[in-house]
Specification:
This protein has one domain: TIM Barrel (Alpha-Beta Barrel), CATH 3.20.20. By secondary structure, it is an alpha/beta fold. It has twelve helices and eleven strands. It is globular, with a radius of gyration of 20 Å. The strands form two sheets. The protein has an eight-stranded parallel barrel, surrounded by six helices. Strands 5-6 form a two-stranded antiparallel sheet. Helix 2 runs parallel beside helix 3, helix 3 crosses helix 5 and helix 11 crosses helix 12. Helix 6 links the parallel strand 7 and strand 8.
Length: 345
């Protein structure tokens, strides 16, 4: 198993905890990233949103690609998996920019290709927002352009959305044959595109019983597309404590609704309607993004390692973890989970 973490570009990951002690700043992410290399983390996912989806749209949000370029220059080992949304980037210019960052990093750049979901953000920034299947049609073309520029001396393309004539991208990326392309999605259009054009499939958090069949399905799609094996990753939120009781207390803390609804909590009363069980589940889904609490990586180090081993047996090979406060919790997780698992025979 490889262990990755979400870079706190939004100043935290908990929608109903206002101050997590991890500001959205270059100073914090730089210190966090350098420390993560020392403690055994493998990868960092840098999300790309111009509006803050966690703390409210007026809160600070770091730019993904300038942050990635800066981190590429000060790190030595960490894989930098940077989100990119095709409707926000002209593909030929992006291919040049990303190739340069990959060379700065010595071949450690990877892309998390995200077919945009936030219409209001695109509208604010004056950008095209496609409907669902059209988004994946755009992404298909966009990837063909980027891949062509990375792998061919001169590249010509005539598509519905993009047209290039004898375009040159030099220097090429340092990664061979190209930077790894990660992508996620649960629709038929998404899975078909990913199986045919990407290298790795990333999923929202879910119990292992739900993840295993998804991995098997994507493996079948990949084989049918005539492509080699894929890699598989999953988002999750982790809480590790010396006792299960302590871990559950922390879970209660981060999912407890504050007296004043947080800025990002739209349609508050409607969202909480239903039975007490539904209310509890909704609070968990809201408080932590990407279904991060569903994998239940909450408990003692031994319990969490055992659950991770179950995912590994199902074919998962990358965890993309959120935790809070991040610097302290990442150190704890590295010492009590990552190091024992990597040292095990």
């Amino acid at each position: 198993m490889r262990f990755g973490y979400w870079m706190p570009v939004f100043g935290g990951w908990l929608r109903n905890v206002e101050d997590e002690g991890m500001e959205a700043s270059w100073d914090y992410v730089r210190r966090l990233t350098l420390r993560s290399e020392e403690t055994g983390w493998d990868l960092s996912l840098i999300a790309e949103l111009n509006l803050n989806d966690i703390k409210g749209i007026e809160a600070p949000a770091l730019d993904a690609w300038s942050t990635a370029a800066a981190l590429a220059a000060v790190t030595e080992r960490l894989e930098l998996m940077v989100a990119v949304r095709p409707n926000f980037h002209q593909p030929a210019l992006f291919a040049k920019q990303a190739a340069n960052i990959d060379n700065i990093s010595g071949g450690r750049l990877a892309l998390n290709v995200v077919s945009s979901w936030w219409a209001d953000e695109a509208t604010q920034y004056g950008l095209q927002f496609d409907q669902h299947d059209d988004r994946y049609a755009r992404t298909r073309e966009w990837l063909r352009v980027v891949d062509g520029l990375w792998t061919q001396k001169r590249f010509t393309y005539e598509g519905e959305r993009y047209r290039l004539q004898e375009a040159i991208c030099e220097p090429k990326p340092a990664s061979r044959p190209r930077p790894t392309l990660y992508a996620g999605g649960e629709s038929e259009a998404a899975k078909t595109m990913i199986a045919e054009q990407c290298d790795a499939y990333v999923m929202h958090g879910d119990p292992v019983e739900a993840i295993a069949p998804r991995i098997a399905d994507m493996a079948r799609r990949r084989e049918a597309a005539g492509q080699g094996p894929m890699r598989y990753g999953m988002a999750a939120y982790a809480i590790v404590r010396d006792s299960e009781e302590e871990a559950r207390r922390e879970l209660e803390r981060i999912t407890q609704l504050p007296p004043e609804p947080p800025k990002g909590f739209d349609n508050f009363e409607q969202w909480l309607s239903g039975t007490e069980l539904e209310r509890e589940l909704k609070l968990q889904e809201y408080s932590v993004s990407n279904r991060g609490l569903r994998p239940n990586l909450v408990g003692t180090p031994e319990q969490v390692r055992e659950r991770i081993e179950d995912y590994e047996a199902a074919g998962l090979d990358l965890l993309l973890l959120q935790m809070s406060p991040q610097a302290e919790e990442m150190d704890r997780f590295a010492e009590q989970v990552i190091r024992p698992m990597k040292e095990a025979p």
